[in-house]
Design a protein that fits this description.
By secondary structure, the protein is mostly helical. It contains 8 helices and no strands.
């Protein structure tokens, strides 16, 4: 029996399959981020409807990625900062600078304490 060329045995993944996997991964990340927020800030998120929390998380994750946050830990901490303080502060240069420092994020909650002091300090003019 003749052997098939190696190219004939290759698995082909089509664009719709790749998109379906990417969408599934995104939906799972959003769901886990919502659960994370419910644990981290139950006073704000415990009673929020799933669709409301999910829409907020998706919007904030998209914003975080737009600001250059690509690591899961950075994005989750970005959500926490936006949830705990406010969205404008979470998008500020001060907050983003801290959230880009992956080494510093490993010592959480110390970076959150730094962010709290930055949040409470009056803006310099």
């Amino acid at each position: 029996m003749p052997r098939r060329p190696a190219a004939a045995l290759m698995l082909k993944i089509r664009r719709p399959q790749i998109e379906a996997l990417a969408n599934l991964s995104w939906r799972r990340f959003v769901a886990s981020a919502v659960a994370h927020l419910r644990d981290a800030h139950p006073e704000r998120w415990a009673e929020a409807a799933e669709d409301v929390a999910g829409a907020w998380v998706e919007r904030r994750l998209t914003r975080g990625m737009h600001l250059g946050l690509l690591e899961e830990v950075s994005l989750l901490r970005h959500l926490e900062v936006a949830s705990h303080f406010d969205e404008r502060f979470a998008d500020s240069d001060d907050a983003i600078g801290v959230l880009h420092n992956l080494d510093e994020l490993q010592s959480w909650p110390e970076p959150m304490e730094l962010l709290a002091s930055l949040y409470e300090s009056p803006a310099e003019t």
